[in-house]
């Protein structure tokens, strides 16, 4: 269990679905007050009914939308989880607007929110910043050039942030999963196709497994900082290369 003297209040983005929702419930069950941030009004209404959960309807791209709640709650644990993989098109075929969309949500928004939260953590002498990265930020995945670049940015940011925060008592953990069974592919390919291609017949990681890992890192003694957790389904490996012959 996390140290209840240090870790009392958590803010989780992307709380309406998948990993974020599982993390909200796991942190709440571990005794923390949880601020759940999301967009979907129906999913937020469900979360609002949960004891120990405060709901904030906000788009993570609007950093100032967090000012009010941050003034009210001293956040000890920030989980930067909201993210999108809005297309699986090859880079040369993707809508240019998707480049900005994925960078704004996956990379810029966590940085701006962290910038708002971290001074309070430094002042209090403790805090834990979590970032949900991706295996796509650590190795190339076809159809994920921009998504992967946004997650690679998160990964290096975490390493550099740990340097800047050294001595502050604030911990930084990146969790970089392979395939987790969630709604992530809803826009890129639709959930039915995602089920047939990605999930049916495989044993993926479940969102609750990521929540268990996060809670384990948070529960370690204060002098222990898990800097990166890379986690795959047992039936997934990444790597290898593809070659084609040049014609003509
Ligand atoms: N699933 C995987 O295989 C996998 C693997 C590696 C990493 N990840 C990462 O895990 C994180 C969580 O994704 P997931 O797999 O749990 O997918 P998910 O089920 O689609 O959840 C994504 C969450 O992010 C929220 N979100 C997206 N854009 C937002 C915005 N602009 N403002 C506020 N909230 C926003 C979504 O809410 P609304 O749609 O309601 O806005 C949703 O709650 C992401 O960062 C993803 O890149 C997932």
Structure characterization notes:
41% of the residues lie in helices and 15% in strands. With 248 residues, the chain is of the alpha/beta class. The chain has a 7-stranded parallel beta sheet with strand order 3-2-1-4-5-6-7, with helices on both faces. It is built from 8 helices and 7 strands, in the order E-H-E-H-E-H-E-H-E-H-E-H-H-H-E. Helix 1 crosses helix 8 and helix 4 (96-124) packs parallel to helix 5. The mean pLDDT is 96. The chain has a single domain, classed as 3-Layer(aba) Sandwich (Rossmann fold), CATH 3.40.50. It binds NADP nicotinamide-adenine-dinucleotide phosphate. Residues 13-14, 16-20, 38-40, 59-61, 81-84, 105, 132, 134, 177, 179-180, 182-184 line the site of NADP nicotinamide-adenine-dinucleotide phosphate.
Which helices and strands appear, and what pairs or packs with what?
Blueprint: E1 9-13, H1 18-29, E2 33-38, H2 41-48, E3 53-57, H3 67-72, E4 77-80, H4 96-124, E5 127-132, H5 145-164, E6 170-177, H6 186-189, H7 191-199, H8 207-219, E7 228-231
The structure holds NADP nicotinamide-adenine-dinucleotide phosphate (NAP).
